[in-house]
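Collaborator request, handled under Task 6.
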Amino acid sequence: MAVAAPRRQDGERGAAALRILIAVAKFAAMLAVTLVGLAAVTFVIGRVVPIDPVLAVVGDRAPQRVYDRVRAEMGLDLPLIEQFWLYLSRILTGDFGRSVLTTNPVLTDIARYFPATLELATLGTLFGTLVGVPLGVLAAVRRDTLLDQLVRVVGLIGYSVPIFWLGLMALLVFYARLDWAPGPGRLDIAYDYIVTPVTGLLLVDSLIAGEPGVFWNALSHAMLPGLVLGYFSLAYISRMTRSFMLHELAQEYIVAARVKGLSETRIIWRHALRNAAVPLVTVIALSYAHLLEGSVLTETVFAWPGLGSYLTNSLQSADMNAVLGATLVIGASFVLLNLLSDIAYRLLDPRTR
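Structure tokens returned to the collaborator:
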């Protein structure tokens, strides 16, 4: 009997380890299939868009023989399935081609511009979460009151107003009229080239370099576009928080807590919000992913040198390598954040395991 118990425990540990390995394998397979599908979608987009990438390289006055040679060098004379295989094999090695606009490898350009978009989306998500969650909780607690109506109106406006119009109005009011915010761009000219890029995140790099002046100037430039993006995140997060809290406040454990004499504050913020926080993780992660992919118009309005501006300029210049590379990176970021939020949901809620 003394020997059987350790053997049984070893068998249980082995079964648990096997389940974990199977779960990891399933996750890796799902991620691989999703990313291959995303690559296929971007490849089809590059072939469907009525833009000739050869003309973007040689120009519309090039001789036919030059046009044919460049077309063959780019592999566009091959069958479509062979083109996709070559495209997939290149991006798996990190080769997204060379940008016609900047003459740099596309991956180098993405590594340069993506941190600015990441910085802006992070500020927007922080604002949307720190303000949207309390607003959603208060709206649920004060259901059908004036406060609830105001929160719902704020969310409705956030869904309805075009982001480029809101950005233009923010610049008009806070920059042009009131002079409370600095102008477009990521940094004043006086602070350019003071900080050596390490992470690409200017706020982080300025702290690493010990340059508080650069940090505060960069933060002041990021606040207005970050708040514009954050407002749309706030609208989504506050609405979902309200919905989750209404569901939790109607549960029997809330009634039991009130019968036991617990304070309303403890019931709301410690019990109801704690259970509502599990699905909120997914909501916040998806909101973050939406800001990463939806910052194109905001970056254009505020002249923010991020991936959205890079994508817009590349599209206007018919630089399809850059367009497809940036689209693939944004899509991959969305997929990864979605999968990570699903993992976090499973870790936080044992009922889903």
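The cover message to the collaborator said: "The radius of gyration is 25 Å. The chain has a mean pLDDT of 83. Please let us know whether this matches your experimental observations."
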